[in-house]
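Form P-L/3: holo structure prediction, ligand tryptophan.
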Amino acid sequence: MRERIVSGMRPTGKLHLGHYLGVIQNWVELQHKYESFFFVADWHALTTKYDKTENLKNDVIDVAIDWLASGIDPEISTIYVQSLVPEIAELNIYLGMVTPQNWVERDPTLKDMAKILRSKEGQNSQISYGLMGYPVLMSADIMMMNATHVPVGIDQVAHIEITRDIARRFNNVYKEEFFNEPQPILNHCSLICGLDGNKMGKSFQNDIKISDTEEVTAKKIMTAITDRSRLRKTDLGHPDECEVAFKYWTIFGTEEQVAKVRCECEKGERGCADCKRQLGALINEKFSEIREKRRYYEAHIDEVKDILNEGSKKARTEAQKIISHVRELINMY
Ligand code: TRP
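OUTPUT (holo model):
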């Protein structure tokens, strides 16, 4: 049997270059090598935003459009919506039973999420039972397709560790080596920072979206931080102290381009504004095909919905095979 990957993203709306470089680009390559399942984790969105669901359906579509435009091919990968595969919720119940409470309590990613939540909503804000169950639900997503591998960003690796523990424990309790212990697959692309040098994120307003127009992209790039010690164009620059712009060059430029930028900057022959104008043009060129595809799907939302519905049906067929064996193992009617 071909090895299988499962991965998902929460529907946070339109995705940014961090999502593209950190995760999607990797999926696009892996889909040719593995049997691939990619889903929009709308239940996971509820773990923190259960009271802000007005845009949820649109956000699911936006994420799917970004995937399709980026090259996730619905002919070879299964693209689906988590909540359209209700078997995941059933598996979540069974997995919850075999998971000791302290395994979820010590999950570092969950601790971080709780910290962020408290900083937004005040010290006394309560973590919901649903949020506590985040790693178990995520394990259900992965084990629902009995995945062998999970391509994720580094921040998700702790969750995958718990999934491996839960899979092992389930197999022990029900005395069959049924579930795989899935391995994370990390990508090797360097992490892209936001325009202000911090982690790129929607809520920090320092991101460039896949869906941004060329004008917006060019404008945003002009705000990217450079070498703070440099005041005039003719000052000698320090590319290694350039906080954002030079880093972007190393991500998007060819080796020759990067060498040229470094050399001109160090000699004081390249001003930061000019440098960023060129950088904006380069990024726009890189994304022009993806953005064109994106515009196509935006104009054909019904096609996107069909892809999600078809994919969800296919995912469900797989899920039903797994869940019926699980029910048998546990001795359910
Ligand atoms: N927790 C992941 C994130 O925030 C999303 C996710 C949910 C996921 N279920 C998953 C990723 C299963 C991989 C596999 O990015």
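COMMENT: The chain has 14 helices and five strands.
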